[in-house]
């Protein structure tokens, strides 16, 4: 591919020409959505464009984590350094043995030197051990801390963030990237420091031994530095691309398993496999490109010093022949030079590792830098909010229940030319009242319900609960107040009881039982371990109706002040539905509730009904009133696009 | 997301010898610590199978690195020659030997440069091909495995196999193989050189391999154990991670963050402990082997000194010998790194091999029977003595016979757990019956190729997962290669066209992650359109309209009347509106068909269906 570019173009040109290719995948799979993109190339904002952060600057961001282990790291590096010194000293001792006792056939002088050699060896072995062992625990701890922080951060990030990011990209950051970073700190970082110092020390030794030979040996350093800089710019781009592609791969795998029923039902595993195949091929291309870059670098790094060493050997032999140099000195020089072979050669993979760790770090911090307040309200909206809060506080006491005032919402990534999904919702659910929310499929009912617990932030207007602006209530407290049963009942890998009690961790067993009763979840008793039965992805798979009933129980368990139910009975059969409704009426009697309803039977749970159409509340009234007066409602409930009688006000 | 940290490890249960049943049943959930049994030696067999096809290229790469090492290792030998021959010759004003030796040295340097570059490129190609193959195998196999397996194994664990376990092998291949080759070759070269230079000292040096071997063996055993634990810990970590991220809405709404963090922390630390232990094993190995090596070096120097003193060894030879001897042990570090990667990869390969060794319970026939040509009026479905029980023995459907004539629409009703869905899943061959058979136009479903089966029978479930991609792509899963018109036509037929067209980018709208932007009802419409596009002879709808609103459902029903013409259809619904379009209704109770007749007959009667129907009428406006 672009292997030759490395040597053919200047660094700037190289970046210029590789950049446009850097997002090689279709737009929708672009894994780095956090950079604001407005059709401009990412270059326009160098601060956020990961390609332009230097390797060192990226790696420095690891410092807060590495700080904790800095002494251990220092100990490890010191151990490695001292061990390396012994590598340098050993040839000197050997030289002494050869030039001294052996050359003079003086065995009595041998013993102290041999003893020194043995001692050196043992110390070296001890240091090798120490170098690794001091880092073992702390490094694992560092990875744990970083992964833990990522996980915690991801849990705090708003739902809109999760909508944008494919889960595979998140997963690859928590696993592959973390692995790369830890590996870097474990070996390459230590070696980078040690090998550089060892190189410096070795060079000094060589200069002491013979400066002429040392100069010859060092000759290739200049071209090497230039070449590695070239290498770096190309390699980090490729490394980043490979990591992104790995993330995409994880997404495909996950989806292919989560959607396995559909793929099976349609016999489409080949289609999916084809998609997977093409992505793995892309990854392979990137990896081969990386290997090509590395091969070039490595060849140079191995080759040039060897050539220089050959020259040094020639000159050295000449000097010995001229008696300007002792044999022992030449042996010592050459063994020093040969000992430096490894530190120099290792430069290739150390740089590669450093680059990969740097891009992995970038990817990690992309998530960690994400602002947590997701769609924080615009300043104007905030001013609005204060005004509204003022009035709200003024009327507090009389203004109880849920009140939505001029609530607007649009998804952050909605195209500019589309209208807001919710454009000015005014709705008041009185305290203790149950309000049904009815609207055509896709009218924004579910979105509206997600605004109450602030899973999404309204882009305009205010929502108050008993007179308090929800933005003033701490999120945890708000979500304690507002309990939700989602359209899609998700159970987690935990016991039935734990799943239900998520709604109210402090609820008593009695409350748990009541909640299960309300939801008609009597099937729980027949489960192998009752409420202790493990469900969720790692446990039993329950049917849709069973899951829905547990989700309902979860919502009602803590007698929440505000209850939001999103089509809570869709998967139930008629009999069960009737029973649940009956039981729910009791619960709803004392709760302020908003219930998304698709069918008359669900609507009948409510005291009043609000009709959502075109992003606004089109009508509010009782079921009977609306049936009479609202054509939209009539159509939604009976399905008949009834001829407009009685001069319906709606529409 | 357990509220109490994590559940305790599940004792000594035989690791998942049988899959969990499809619905709530009497098996403990899969434990955290065990996957599926791994056949002994599976990892090695798998590795061999992966390397096999590349034998030629691997041999070539080995030859390249062989020559490269020869060139590189010639250095000290040439130094020795310089000292013993070229320098004395130079003293006699004969620069010929020196020129020759230096020429050889530079030649070797150039050669090793070129070969090093060639080797990296070759081995990258081999490695990437192997990884490609392995990823593909895991993926294809996971797709082939039956639903009962997937219901047990969890998506996170498969993801873990295909990502982090493959990463372990990648690590081994990208660094390890070269390291191993280099280690062996350099050890071999140097050993030969040492023996040639002086056989007595050479033999003494080689004896050190015995303690080194023992140390290595013990390291391998211990680290494999550690890495096995580490792989499992990583997998559970991934399972937890994906579960949280996929359920982020309820996680946040129910304030699970703190409890999750605690639970994740436990798993995270478990993984860290295993890792730290692996690291310590490595440290121990390096420490011990270094000690051995350094003791030997001293010994050989002392011995050599004696031999030089008594005149049976030249000084130059001893110098070269000691230089080489140090290098004999230099690869210990590399060997340690290799063994480390290798044990990690071996543990990962074991897990992968375990997954690959799992045979689908619903297998493709070895010799598929082709379906008779369709008549365009659907196909006849017959259950003959069909019985279905979970592996635990609990019977879900007692043996029954049922014929669904071609082109007719049959509704199946009954309470949750009556066996409706099981009936449907058997017909869609998500499971195979325990006894008896199910035939499509007289052909046993088990004898049909997957392609034929899926052309014949398609099932739409209430769960309507959307794949990332556009709406059009999601519909086109029904029939890849369908034109845009066909996709739109299918959407139109089911009443999904309007809402899709109203999306920001119409049919090209990206559904994003799990269709977060598209409501459950809309997703069901997309699923319907997908099924229509597939144009199957037999269509099964399992609660496929549960999330639709009334107008949506009615639109679907209107569409059904035309869509179902010329097909055999089975409709499972708890909302009886759907049932009205059926020619025939089956009422199920506890796995048995208790009523069977036309809707009119049953409504007119006094049976369960009449009751149900009345209750349903009452629930309407």
Automatic annotation (TrEMBL), chain A:
Regions crossing the membrane: 73-97, 109-129, 183-207
Residues annotated as domain ABC transporter: 402-639
Transport keyword on record: yes
Bias type Polar residues, positions: 7-19
Molecular functions (GO terms): ABC-type oligopeptide transporter activity; ATP binding; ATP hydrolysis activity
InterPro entries listed in its UniProt record: AAA+_ATPase (IPR003593), ABC1_TM_dom (IPR011527), ABC1_TM_sf (IPR036640), ABC_transporter-like_ATP-bd (IPR003439), ABC_transporter-like_CS (IPR017871), P-loop_NTPase (IPR027417), Type_1_exporter (IPR039421)
Region feature Disordered, mapped onto this chain: 1-53
Localization in the cell: Cell membrane
Entry keyword DNA repair: no
Topology versus the membrane: Multi-pass membrane protein
Origin superkingdom: Bacteria
A GO cellular component entry from the record: plasma membrane
Keywords, sorted A to Z: ATP-binding, Cell membrane, Membrane, Nucleotide-binding, Transmembrane, Transmembrane helix, Transport
Domain ABC transmembrane type-1: start-end pairs: 74-356
Protein name: ABC transporter ATP-binding protein
Taxonomy of the source species: Bacteria, Bacillati, Actinomycetota, Actinomycetes, Kitasatosporales
From TrEMBL, chain B:
Bilayer-crossing regions: 60-83, 95-115, 180-197, 203-219
Subcellular location, record wording: Cell membrane
Keywords: ATP-binding, Cell membrane, Membrane, Nucleotide-binding, Transmembrane, Transmembrane helix, Transport
Signal sequence region: none
Membrane topology listed for this record: Multi-pass membrane protein
Annotated region (Disordered), positions in chain: 1-39
GO cellular component: plasma membrane
Residue span, ABC transmembrane type-1 domain: 60-344
An example Gene Ontology molecular-function term: ATP hydrolysis activity
Predominant location: membrane
Transit peptide among keywords: no
Domain ABC transporter: 381-615
Similarity annotation: Belongs to the ABC transporter superfamily. Lipid exporter (TC 3.A.1.106) family.
Protein name: ABC transporter
Organism: Kitasatospora indigofera
Lineage, highest ranks first: Bacteria, Bacillati, Actinomycetota, Actinomycetes, Kitasatosporales
């Amino acid at each position: 591919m672009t292997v030759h570019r490395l040597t053919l173009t200047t660094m700037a040109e190289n970046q210029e020409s590789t950049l446009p290719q850097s997002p090689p995948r279709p737009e929708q799979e672009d894994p780095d959505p956090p950079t604001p993109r407005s059709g401009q190339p990412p270059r326009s904002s160098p601060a956020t464009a990961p390609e332009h952060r230097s390797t060192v600057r990226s790696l420095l961001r690891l410092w807060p984590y590495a700080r904790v282990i800095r002494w251990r790291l220092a100990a490890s590096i010191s151990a490695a350094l001292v061990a390396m010194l012994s590598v340098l000293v050993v040839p000197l001792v050997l030289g002494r043995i050869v030039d001294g006792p052996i050359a003079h056939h003086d065995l009595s002088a041998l013993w102290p030197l041999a003893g020194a050699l043995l001692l050196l060896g043992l110390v070296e072995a001890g240091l090798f051990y120490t170098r690794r062992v001091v880092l073992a625990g702390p490094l694992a701890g560092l990875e744990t801390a970083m992964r833990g922080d990522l996980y915690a951060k991801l849990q705090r990030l708003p739902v809109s963030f999760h909508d944008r990011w494919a889960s595979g990209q998140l997963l690859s950051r928590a696993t592959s990237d973390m692995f790369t970073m830890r590996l870097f700190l474990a070996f390459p970082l230590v070696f980078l420091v040690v090998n550089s110092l060892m190189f410096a020390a070795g060079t000094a030794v060589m200069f002491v031994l013979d400066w002429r030979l040392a100069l010859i040996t060092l000759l290739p350093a200049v071209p090497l530095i230039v070449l590695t800089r070239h290498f770096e710019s190309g390699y980090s781009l490729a490394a980043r691309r490979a990591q992104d592609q790995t993330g995409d791969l994880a997404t495909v795998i996950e989806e292919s398993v989560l959607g396995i029923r559909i793929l099976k039902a349609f016999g489409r595993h080949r289609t999916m496999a084809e998609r997977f195949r093409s992505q793995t091929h892309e990854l392979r291309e990137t990896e081969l490109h990386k290997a090509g870059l590395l091969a070039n670098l490595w060849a140079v790094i191995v080759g040039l010093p060897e050539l220089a060493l050959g020259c040094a050997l020639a000159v050295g032999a000449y000097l010995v022949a001229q008696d300007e140099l002792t044999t022992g000195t030449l042996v010592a020089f050459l063994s020093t030079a040969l000992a430096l072979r490894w530190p120099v050669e290792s430069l290739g993979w150390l740089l590669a590792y450093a680059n990969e760790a740097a891009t992995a770090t970038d990817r990690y911090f992309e998530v960690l830098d994400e602002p947590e307040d997701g769609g924080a309200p615009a300043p104007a909206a905030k001013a609005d909010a204060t005004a509204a809060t003022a009035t709200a506080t003024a009327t507090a006491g009389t203004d109880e229940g849920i009140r939505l005032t001029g609530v607007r919402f649009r998804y952050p990534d909605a195209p500019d030319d589309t209208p807001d999904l919710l454009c000015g919702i005014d709705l008041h659910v009185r305290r203790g009242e149950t309000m049904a929310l009815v609207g055509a499929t896709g009218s924004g009912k579910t979105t509206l319900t997600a605004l109450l617990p602030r899973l999404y932030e309204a882009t305009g207007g205010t929502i108050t609960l008993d007179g308090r602006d929800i933005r003033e209530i701490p999120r945890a407290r708000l979500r304690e107040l507002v309990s939700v049963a989602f359209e899609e009942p998700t159970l987690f890998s935990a016991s039935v009881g734990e799943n239900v009690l998520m709604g109210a961790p402090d609820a008593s067993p009695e409350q748990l039982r009541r909640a299960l009763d309300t939801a008609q979840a009597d099937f729980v008793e027949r489960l192998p371990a009752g409420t202790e039965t493990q469900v969720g992805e790692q446990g039993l798979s329950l049917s849709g109706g069973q899951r829905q009933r547990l989700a309902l129980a979860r919502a009602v368990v803590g007698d929440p002040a505000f209850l939001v139910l999103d089509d809570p009975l869709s998967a139930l059969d008629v009999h069960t539905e009737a029973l649940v409704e009956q039981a729910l009426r009791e619960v709803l009697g004392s709760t302020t509730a908003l219930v998304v309803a698709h069918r008359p039977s669900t609507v009948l749970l409510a005291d009043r009904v609000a009709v959502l159409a075109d992003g606004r509340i089109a009508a509010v009234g009782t079921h009977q009133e609306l049936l009479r007066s609202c054509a939209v409602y009539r159509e939604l409930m009976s399905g008949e696009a009834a001829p407009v009688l009685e001069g319906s006000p709606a529409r | 997301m357990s509220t109490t940290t994590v559940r305790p490890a599940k004792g000594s249960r035989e690791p998942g010898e049988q899959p969990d049943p499809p619905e709530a049943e009497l098996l403990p959930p899969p434990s955290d610590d065990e996957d599926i049994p791994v056949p002994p030696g599976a990892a090695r067999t798998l590795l061999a199978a992966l390397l096999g096809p590349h034998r030629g290229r691997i041999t070539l790469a080995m030859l390249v690195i062989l020559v490269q090492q020869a060139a590189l290792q010639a250095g000290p030998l040439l130094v020795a020659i310089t000292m013993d021959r070229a320098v004395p010759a130079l003293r006699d004003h004969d620069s010929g030997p020196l020129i020759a030796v230096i020429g050889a040295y530079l030649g070797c340097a150039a050669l090793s440069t070129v070969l090093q570059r060639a080797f990296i490129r070759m081995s990258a190609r081999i490695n990437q091909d192997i990884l490609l193959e392995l990823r593909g195998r895991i993926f294809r196999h996971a797709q082939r495995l039956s639903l009962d397996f997937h219901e047990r194994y969890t998506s996170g664990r498969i993801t873990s196999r295909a990502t982090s376990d493959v990463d372990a092998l990648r690590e081994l291949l990208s660094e390890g193989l070269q390291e191993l080759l280099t280690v062996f070759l350099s050890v071999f070269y140097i050993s030969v050189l040492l023996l040639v230079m002086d056989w007595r000292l050479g033999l003494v040096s080689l004896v050190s391999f015995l303690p080194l071997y023992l140390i290595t063996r013990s390291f391998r055993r211990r680290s494999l154990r550690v890495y096995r634990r580490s792989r499992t810990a990583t997998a559970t970590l991934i399972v937890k991670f994906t579960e949280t991220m996929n359920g982020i809405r309820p996680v946040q709404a129910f304030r699970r963050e703190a409890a999750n963090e605690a639970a994740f922390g436990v798993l995270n630390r478990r993984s860290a402990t295993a890792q730290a232990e692996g690291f310590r094993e490595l440290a121990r190995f390096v420490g011990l082997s270094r000690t051995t090596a350094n003791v030997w070096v001293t010994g050989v120097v002392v011995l050599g000194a004696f031999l030089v003193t008594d005149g049976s060894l030249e000084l130059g030879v001893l110098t070269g010998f000691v230089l080489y001897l140090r290098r004999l042990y230099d690869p210990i570090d590399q060997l340690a790194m290799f063994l480390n990667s290798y044990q990690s990869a071996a543990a990962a390969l074991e897990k992968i091999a375990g997954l690959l060794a799992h045979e689908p319970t619903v297998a493709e026939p070895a010799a598929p029977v082709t379906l008779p040509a369709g008549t365009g009026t659907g196909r006849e479905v017959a259950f003959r003595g069909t019985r279905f029980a979970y592996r635990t023995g609990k019977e879900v459907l007692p043996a029954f016979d049922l014929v669904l004539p071609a082109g007719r629409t049959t509704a199946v009703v009954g309470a949750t757990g009556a066996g409706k869905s099981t009936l449907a899943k058997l017909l869609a061959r998500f499971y195979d019956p325990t006894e008896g058979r199910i035939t499509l136009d007289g052909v046993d479903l088990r004898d049909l190729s997957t392609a034929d089966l899926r052309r014949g029978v398609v099932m739409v479930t209430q769960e309507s997962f959307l794949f990332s991609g556009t709406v059009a792509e999601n519909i086109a899963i029904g029939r890849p290669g369908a034109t845009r018109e066909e996709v739109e036509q299918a959407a139109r037929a089911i009443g999904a066209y309007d809402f899709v067209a109203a999306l920001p980018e119409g049919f090209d709208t990206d559904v994003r992650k799990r269709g977060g932007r598209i409501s459950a009802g809309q997703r069901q419409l997309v699923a319907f359109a997908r099924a229509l596009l597939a144009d199957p002879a037999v269509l099964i709808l399992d609660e496929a309209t549960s999330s639709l609103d009334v107008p949506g459902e009615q639109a679907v029903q209107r569409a059904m009347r035309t869509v179902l013409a010329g097909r055999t259809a089975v409709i499972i619904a708890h909302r009886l509106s759907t049932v009205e379009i059926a020619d025939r209704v089956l009422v199920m109770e506890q796995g048995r068909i208790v009523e069977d007749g036309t809707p009119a007959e049953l409504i007119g009667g006094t049976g369960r269906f009449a009751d149900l129907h009345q209750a349903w009428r009452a629930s309407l406006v």
